[in-house]
């Protein structure tokens, strides 16, 4: 039911679903055949309905690098988010299924991930912030800077972060500059500091 609902929802926005699959093996074959602009995957797929969808998503990222993937889960499972983003944060999303109920939020996530952005569910971010260990280098960040970093992980732009926090764009830019400085993220031609900051947030670097 969720799959058919998503297809209709996307169609209403002019987004074509080129194929669907009920299992991981079929998904991999379809991705290699169609090379879609985005793959939407349920963490739980047959036959055991545990983590087959996640493993299929990881396989897609390995065999067809750069394929944007948006993964859905029924519950907050931090390991799935960190496993998925571990291979690179660009074009990756991890959302709870309940987010589909907010059509605008869901479609925004679809577009951001398809364009190479990162979208992590706010509930996952809240849990990650809540379990930070003593000595974690993110402890150098102020509460506001951690809040900004969490919103960056959700995939929000600077302007969207400013609106969410009711501050100026300049204030957001200052917070982000401080985040980069405190995390030791230097500007280079070979790295994307925003992505590296999100990876640090998720404990992957």
TrEMBL record:
Keyword check for NAD: no
Please name the GO terms of the biological process aspect recorded for this protein, alphabetically: phosphorelay signal transduction system; regulation of DNA-templated transcription
Domain named HTH luxR-type is located at: 134-205
Q: Which GO terms describe its molecular function?
A: DNA binding
Give the protein's recorded name: DNA-binding response regulator
Q: Which SMART domains match?
A: HTH_LUXR (SM00421), REC (SM00448)
Q: Which organism is it from?
A: Actinoallomurus iriomotensis
Q: Where is the Response regulatory domain?
A: 1-112
**PANTHER family per UniProt:** TRANSCRIPTIONAL REGULATORY PROTEIN NARL-RELATED, TWO-COMPONENT RESPONSE REGULATOR
Q: Where on the chain is 4-aspartylphosphate found, per UniProt?
A: 42
User: Has keyword Transit peptide?
Assistant: no
Q: Which UniProt keywords apply?
A: DNA-binding, Phosphoprotein, Transcription, Transcription regulation
């Amino acid at each position: 039911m969720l799959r058919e609902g998503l297809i209709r929802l996307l169609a209403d926005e002019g987004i074509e679903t080129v194929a669907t699959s009920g299992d991981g093996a079929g998904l991999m074959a379809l991705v290699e055949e169609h090379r879609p602009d985005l793959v939407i995957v349920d963490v739980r797929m047959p036959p055991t309905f545990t983590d087959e969808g996640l493993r299929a998503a990881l396989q897609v990222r390995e065999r067809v690098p750069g394929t944007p993937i948006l993964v859905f889960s029924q519950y907050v499972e931090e390991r799935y988010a960190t496993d998925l983003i571990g291979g690179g944060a660009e074009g990756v999303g991890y959302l709870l299924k309940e987010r589909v109920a907010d059509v605008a939020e869901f479609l925004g996530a679809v577009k951001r991930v398809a364009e190479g952005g990162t979208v992590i569910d706010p509930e996952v971010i809240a849990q990650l912030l809540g379990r930070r260990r003593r000595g974690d280098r993110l402890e150098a960040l102020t509460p506001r800077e951690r809040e900004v970093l969490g919103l960056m992980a959700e995939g929000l732009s600077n302007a969207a972060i400013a609106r969410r926090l009711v501050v100026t764009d300049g204030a957001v830019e200052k917070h982000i500059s401080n985040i980069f400085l405190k995390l030791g993220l230097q500007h280079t031609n070979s790295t994307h500091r925003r992505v590296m900051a999100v990876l640090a947030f998720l404990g992957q670097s």
